[in-house]
Description:
The complex is a heterodimer of chains A (113) and B (115).
Chain A: E1 4-6, E2 11-14, E3 19-25, E4 30-38, E5 44-50, E6 55-57, E7 60-65, E8 70-75, E9 84-92, E10 101-103, E11 107-112
Parallel strand pairs in A: 2-11
Antiparallel strand pairs in A: 1-3, 3-8, 4-5, 4-9, 6-7, 7-8, 9-10, 9-11
Chain B: E1 5-7, E2 10-13, E3 19-24, E4 31-37, E5 43-50, E6 65-69, E7 75-79, E8 88-95, E9 105-106, E10 110-114
Parallel strand pairs in B: 2-10
Antiparallel strand pairs in B: 1-3, 3-7, 4-5, 4-8, 6-7, 8-9, 8-10
Amino acid sequence: xxxxxxxxxxxxxxxxxxxxxxxxxxxxxxxxxxxxxxxxxxxxxxxxxxxxxxxxxxxxxxxxxxxxxxxxxxxxxxxxxxxxxxxxxxxxxxxxxxxxxxxxxxxxxxxxx
Amino acid sequence: xxxxxxxxxxxxxxxxxxxxxxxxxxxxxxxxxxxxxxxxxxxxxxxxxxxxxxxxxxxxxxxxxxxxxxxxxxxxxxxxxxxxxxxxxxxxxxxxxxxxxxxxxxxxxxxxxxx
Lengths: 113, 115
């Protein structure tokens, strides 16, 4: 089983739609969670961290469910510029090790006019 | 300010040749990471450097892969005797330090094609 799994999509939605992506992680030792965004043929960039209590940044809402080991990203009022691949990222720390970031394969979003 | 830069942007090589990929991190960033991204795959961690500490090489796929970071700044990833399965985009990233590793700033990548 992959450590971080995402639906690859693509999710094709009209402008203004609300869209949600889920991501599941297999290692219960996972401690920190993030969403990165990667535009086509570009480098990934941090979109937002995911906090246990859930957090919002403008039109973007991230949530964490530790019991079920999944993370979600909700995008409201989709814009054309939101078209990108969204990468779910998990950090697993072992003992005194700070751990590395583990990236999912990403979910592709395409927002249409 | 200047971001992470990588060179070359594209590299085409023949199977069996050695290649060197270069990464110049953001000035002042002490942590540097190498990843590769194959078509349709997620980012695969290769190696990271933190200051003067020994690098974490746990992600290197074989002994044909090696990396150096000289003077705590520029890093070179070397792939010896390249194979077709090495074809991928090689991404370098840096962060202020390991405590800030959650926000990694990526370079544009080097697209490696092994014929």
